[in-house]
Structure formats: structure tokens, C-alpha cells
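Reading a protein record of the kind used here takes only a little practice. The record below shows the convention in full:
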Amino acid sequence: MKKIILLILAVLLTQINVFSQIKKVDVQRQKDSLFVLKKTLTNRNEQLRKQLDKLQAKLDKITEKYNSKKIVLFVKKYGKRIGNRLASGKVWKGMTERMLRDSWGKPDKIHRNKEKWGVFTQWTYGKITYFFRDGKLIDWEEKK
């Protein structure tokens, strides 16, 4: 009986040893696989960063060209002083609806009210609402 128990114990110990060796090999394979994956992802990340930098440089050039052409257009249309102010996105009381549309683009929302004493218009760009009376800017308000 002792021999059988010793034989069973020897077989179990051998299997445990083989199993632990298999586990070590399996863990090492997983570590190697993760290391390769990390290296691949790091390289891909670096490639994407370089592409992003190139795209940002192109966007900056295009934006610069656009802004310079916008200045030329606005100066031709409104004169040097007002054209430069519009090209830089400035807003002031007394400017016309057309000037604001040229400078800021189409508003998100327009509300128009016609009364005996004039036409009142509200233009909304995001959180800012501009108030016009008879086509001239009289005030604005920024929601917080």
C-alpha cells in the first residue's frame, strides 16, 4: 500500500512540475507577445504623431493664406480700417448685419421682429446674441 501511495505521489509531483513548466512557458509567450504588441503600438503612435504634425503644418499654411485673402477681400469691400477690423473678427456697435455675416459667417439662429419703430433682429452665435435695429448693431449679450 505504501508503494502505491509513493508511486501516486511521485506521479503527482512529476505532473505538477511539468504543469508549472508549461505555465512558465505560457506566461513567457504572453509576455513576449505583449512586448511585441507594445513595440508595434509605440511605433504606430509615433507615425501618427508625425502625420498629425504634418497635417497641422498644412492647416496652418492654409489658414494663413485664407486669412491674408480675407483681409484683401474685406479691405477692397469696406476700406482699410474697417476691412482689417472685420478680418480679425472684431465687433462694434454700429456695424451692419452684412459686416457681421462677412466676418463671423452665418449665425446659428436669427430672430426678426418688425415693429412700427423699426426692424429688430437677434443673431445668435453659440452663447453670444447680437441685437440689431434696422440692420445696425446696437448691443450684444453673452450667456454664461
About this structure: The longest helix spans residues 2-78. Strands lie at 109-115, 118-125, 128-133, 136-142. The chain has two domains: 1-90, 92-142.
